[in-house]
Design a protein that fits this description.
Length: about 160
């Protein structure tokens, strides 16, 4: 399985769930994380095709067949209208994804992925690219779909193959 395959299998459904959820728009506007919700909804989406998807197996967020997925929600400090100004160190969030990649490299499963949502996404691509390149350099493949939360807050969901 490739990152693109996983994106094609799950992204449309996840993005629909995110954009239709007014509660998540409040989380995004407050720069609050929602990893627990993300895990539940990704498993719900996977169960349509992968009947054995399970959470929290061997300290991995989601496992099915020979596949491991680690999830993150990355709240940034990029300024955006109607989003609360808070200092959120992007570097700390990037390092957390890098740690997940390192942990997955040690696992004996065939397919290993990191899947993460970034919000609010910088409208200045160059600014964000300096951060995402640190993750991309540790992966064999990275794909993404951009979207907006219910209140128009820009975001992206990334799928990376370890």
């Amino acid at each position: 399985m490739t990152a693109k395959n996983l994106l094609e299998l799950t992204a449309d459904d996840l993005i629909r769930k995110i954009t239709n959820n007014k509660g998540l728009s409040i989380f995004a506007a407050e720069r609050s994380k929602f990893e627990g919700w993300f895990k539940v909804e990704l498993i719900d989406t996977l169960l349509k095709n992968e009947k054995k998807a399970k959470p929290e197996i061997d300290l991995i967020d989601i496992v099915f067949k020979d596949t491991a997925i680690e999830l993150k929600t990355i709240n940034t400090n990029y300024r955006f209208d109607d989003v609360k100004d808070k200092h959120r160190p992007i570097t700390k969030n990037i390092n957390s994804v890098l740690k997940d990649i390192s942990d997955l490299e040690k696992k004996e499963l065939k397919n290993k992925f990191v899947v993460f949502i970034v919000f609010p996404l910088s409208l200045d691509e160059a600014k964000w690219n300096q951060h995402i390149s640190k993750i991309e350099n540790k992966l064999t493949e990275l794909v993404c779909e951009k979207f907006k939360f219910n209140k128009g807050i820009p975001a992206a969901i990334y799928y990376g193959k370890v």
